Amino acid sequence: MKTPQKIAFFGLSVMLAGCAGTPTYQGPIAAAPVCASPAQCAAEWNEARTFVVNNAGYKIETYSPQFLQTYNSVGESTGLAATVNMQPMPGGRFKIAASFWCDNSLGCFPDQRATLNAFNKAVAAAGTQDVAH
After folding, report:
1. Which residues in the chain show pLDDT less than 50?
2. Where would you tag: which of 12, 40, 71, 107 has the fewest CB atoms within 10 A of its CB?
3. Within 10 A of 91 (CB to CB), how many other CB atoms are there?
4. Domain of 119, in residue numbers
């Protein structure tokens, strides 16, 4: 391989390596929401379901009062799949923990970190609104 070709190949390799699997959102992720009362937990769980329906790339496959999961992301799809569960904590509180992912090695759309951050903020806000009223 001639020198100009080596330089071009190296440059292309570096560019592609920089893109592969790098999430777009690099900022901090808001803490997972925590609820303490039945009314607050119901408001947050309802928002969690609504958020997944509106933002995941797949329909909900499994739903219960403390767990929901979409169909899985397959075939190099950039669409987001999701799992959300209500985890018991000390003192009768619950944490609503979510994860978002896709099956694409180059990244997801929308970005899974940005989506988790938005999810945590939206669900926490729903719980705060319920407590305030």
Report:
1. 8-21, 130, 132-133
2. 12
3. 7
4. 32-132
Q: Which two tokens stand for residue 13?
A: 């390799």
Number of domains the chain contains: 1
State the residue for tokens 């669900």.
Answer: 123
Give 111's contacts (C-beta < 8 A, 6+ positions apart): 23, 24, 25
CATH of the domain at 103: 3.30.310
Could you tell me if residue 17 is inside a domain?
Answer: no
The sheet with strand 94-101 has its strands ordered as 34-35, 94-101, 81-88, 67-70, 60-64
- In angstroms and rounded to an integer, the radius of gyration of the C-alpha atoms of the chain is 19
Judging by beta carbons within 10 Å of its beta carbon (0-12, 13-18, 19+), is residue 96 exposed, middle or buried?
buried
This prediction has a pTM of 0.79
